[in-house]
Structure formats: structure tokens, C-alpha cells
């Protein structure tokens, strides 16, 4: 098979879909790999690194798409890429269709095969290709939140760890999944007081068992959320419903109950966000303020630490890329139920029900 690795063109996205190590495995299996010039530069990989393992470097993104059967990338295609994707392509990337009706319609129109990293699902319900980026984003949420709590950036002026004689900052984490647990771990490490909420009591018991005493758990309800947002300095939104829009746990009217300078970091922004006032931002312009509450809603947080993120991503995607390349997408998905769950759109038809539900479309009529 011919695999293409284009340079990511989303704002400040420095990750790349495949490391030289990953390309080496593909060429070793007699596949041809085209890599766009400087595609890996932001992650610390030179064109020569790819050439050394058998890749062919192409100058433009147009050449990569035109020459390849399967495209392996990181983020969803953006407007400039829409015309480049055709019915011959299998596109393997993070899509997050539920958050973009335009993207969904474009991928339906071009009749490509769209396999989404974020819905590849193991039998135990875990999401192996989403997990490493959720780990990165959960940890970064605290790193960024701590920064934006500083007064010069319109935050409350709170040091999360406090100092002797001064109580630590308070962090509220919504969701006890991968993002939430990693965020709680980082915040606890800084010495902050952490409250983590979820509706899954099994997860809360797990958190209670493994976290230190200054991380407390609480059942998530609107009443409890309204109570906690009044005295917490940093709020992390880390809820996820597989392939679907995130529920709005914090509504616009709740912002007025927060103290001025409170910071909210909505890691669920890729799926529409779990805060009603969320709108996607970029690393170039990451924050905005509504009702004196600082919102950080960068849609590709791991893109700011591309070396770590690219290595972590290729570690988990490579086995599936090899399977798709060796067997073709149909046979690979027939033989691997986990990979089959990643099929979102196939030749002009939605095959992942939650996408249609996000836009109130009738999947059977499509």
C-alpha cells in the first residue's frame, strides 16, 4: 500500500502522524511511504531521518494526497484539505466529527473511508488511540491553568501550591476518566486541593484509593457543581461521551457564581466542550474572558508539546496502521473488532451512530 504523511496545517499544530521509527516498520513490510517536506520538523524529526528509513519526501501536501492510498495524520482535515481527499482514500486520524457538521458533510461528499482514532475501542470500553493524548492534555490542563491564574493574564492571582501559612489553590476536575485523573495527579503534585467529580461511582472509588488525601471525590450533579464552582480557582472540563458531543455541565449563568479571575480549561473542546461558553481557540490566541472568567479552550493542546505527543501517539497507532496497510481497510476491520469501531464514515455513509445523533440526522435515511 502507499501511505501518505502530510504536514499538519492546523494553527500551531506541530505533531506529525508518523515518526521515522513508524515509517521504518512500514517500509520493512514493503509499503511505500510518502512524507511531505518538513512534516516532522515541529516534532524534532528531519527529512533525512525519514529518508534514512526508506520514505520518499514530496514537496507539497497536494502531491502527498494525490500519490497515496491511505493518509495517516494527527488532526482532522481542515478546509484547505477538503478538495484533496477523494473516494480512493482511507484517512486515519482524529476526526471528532460530532463537533463539526461542515467536516462531516465534506467527508460524506468525497466518499472516502474515515477511520477515527478517538472511536477505536477495546472490548473493555477503553479507547487506546485517545488515551495517550488524553494523558498529555490532562497534565497540560493544570500546567496551562496554573499559568493563566496569574494576575497579569487576568487570573485570580493564585499560586496553586500555596506557601507556608497560605492555603493552596483549589482545583475542580469534572470527569474521572483519563483526562481527569491525569489532571488531578498533576494538581495534587503541585500541592493544590483537588475535588474530582463523576457520575461513575466505580471510578470515584478508584480515584479515592489511589490519590493522596488532598484529592477528594464527589458525585457529579448540577447542585454539587454549582456549589463547588463558587470557591474553586481552576476548573478542568474532562468529560467524554465516545464519538458524541460533550454534555454541558457548566451553563452560561453559572459563570456569575464564580469568583472573578477563575480559570476554566475545557479539554472536551474537541467534542464541543462541556462548558456552554466554550469556543475553540488556538495556541496563538488561547484564551478569552466572559463574565470575568478566563476560558482556555485550545482544541489541540498536545500540539504544544509535539515531541512527547508524536512519540506517544505513534506508539499506539502504528500496530493499526500496519494492519490497515497489510490487509486493506475492509479485511483489517473484519478481523479486528477494535479497529472496526473506528469506522465513522464509509463511502458516503455514516456508520457511527453518535455522529448522526449529534446533528439530529436519520442515519437510516442517508
UniProtKB/TrEMBL annotation:
Keywords: NAD, Oxidoreductase
Sections of the chain in a coiled coil: none
PROSITE patterns in the cross-refs: ALADH_PNT_2
InterPro entries registered for this protein in UniProt: Ala_DH, Ala_DH/PNT_CS2, AlaDH/PNT_N, AlaDH/PNT_NAD(H)-bd, NAD(P)-bd_dom_sf
Broad class of enzyme this protein falls into: oxidoreductase
Regions crossing the membrane: none
Catalytic activity: L-alanine + NAD(+) + H2O = pyruvate + NH4(+) + NADH + H(+)
Molecular function per GO: alanine dehydrogenase activity
Enzyme Commission (EC) number: 1.4.1.1
Domain Alanine dehydrogenase/pyridine nucleotide transhydrogenase N-terminal: 4-137
Domain of life per record: Bacteria
Record domain Alanine dehydrogenase/pyridine nucleotide transhydrogenase NAD(H)-binding: where: 149-297
Protein family according to the UniProt entry: Belongs to the AlaDH/PNT family.
PANTHER family: ALANINE DEHYDROGENASE
NCBIfam families: alaDH (TIGR00518)
This protein's name: Alanine dehydrogenase
Gene: ald
Amino acid at each position: 500500500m502507499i501511505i501518505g504523511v502530510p504536514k499538519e496545517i492546523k494553527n500551531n499544530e506541530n505533531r506529525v502522524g508518523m515518526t521515522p521509527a513508524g515509517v521504518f516498520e512500514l517500509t520493512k513490510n514493503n509499503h511505500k511511504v510518502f512524507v511531505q517536506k518538513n512534516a516532522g520538523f515541529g516534532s524534532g524529526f528531519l527529512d533525512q531521518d525519514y529518508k534514512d528509513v526508506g520514505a520518499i519526501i514530496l514537496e507539497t501536501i497536494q502531491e502527498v494526497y494525490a500519490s497515496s492510498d491511505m493518509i495517516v495524520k494527527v488532526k482532522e482535515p481542515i478546509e484547505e484539505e477538503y478538495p484533496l481527499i477523494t473516494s480512493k482514500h482511507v484517512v486515519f486520524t482524529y476526526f471528532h466529527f460530532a463537533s463539526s457538521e461542515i467536516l462531516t458533510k465534506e467527508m460524506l461528499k468525497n466518499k472516502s473511508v474515515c477511520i477515527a482514532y478517538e472511536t477505536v475501542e477495546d472490548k473493555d470500553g477503553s479507547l487506546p488511540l485517545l488515551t495517550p493524548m488524553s494523558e498529555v492534555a490532562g497534565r497540560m490542563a493544570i500546567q496551562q491553568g496554573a499559568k493563566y491564574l496569574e494576575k497579569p493574564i487576568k487570573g485570580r492571582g493564585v499560586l496553586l501550591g500555596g506557601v507556608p501559612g497560605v492555603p493552596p489553590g483549589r482545583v475542580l476536575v469534572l470527569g474521572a476518566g483519563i483526562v481527569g485523573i491525569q489532571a488531578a495527579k498533576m494538581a495534587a503534585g503541585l500541592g493544590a486541593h483537588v475535588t474530582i467529580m463523576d457520575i461513575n461511582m466505580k471510578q470515584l472509588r478508584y480515584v479515592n484509593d489511589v490519590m493522596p488525601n488532598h484529592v477528594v471525590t464527589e458525585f457529579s450533579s448540577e447542585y454539587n457543581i454549582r456549589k463547588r464552582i463558587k470557591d474553586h480557582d481552576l476548573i478542568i472540563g474532562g468529560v467524554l461521551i465516545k464519538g458524541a458531543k460533550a454534555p454541558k455541565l457548566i451553563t452560561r449563568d453559572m459563570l456569575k457564581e464564580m469568583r472573578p479571575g477563575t480559570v476554566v480549561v475545557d479539554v472536551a473542546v474537541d467534542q464541543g466542550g462541556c462548558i456552554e461558553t466554550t469556543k475553540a481557540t488556538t495556541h496563538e490566541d488561547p484564551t478569552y474572558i466572559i463574565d470575568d472568567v478566563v476560558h482556555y479552550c485550545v482544541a489541540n493542546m498536545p500540539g504544544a508539546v509535539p515531541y512527547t505527543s508524536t512519540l506517544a501517539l505513534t506508539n499506539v497507532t502504528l500496530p493499526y496502521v500496519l494492519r490497515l496497510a497489510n490487509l486493506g481497510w475492509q479485511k483489517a476491520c473484519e478481523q479486528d473488532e477494535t479497529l472496526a469501531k473506528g469506522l465513522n464514515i464509509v463511502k458516503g455513509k455514516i456508520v457511527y451512530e453518535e455522529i448522526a445523533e449529534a446533528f439530529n440526522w436519520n442515519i437510516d435515511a442517508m
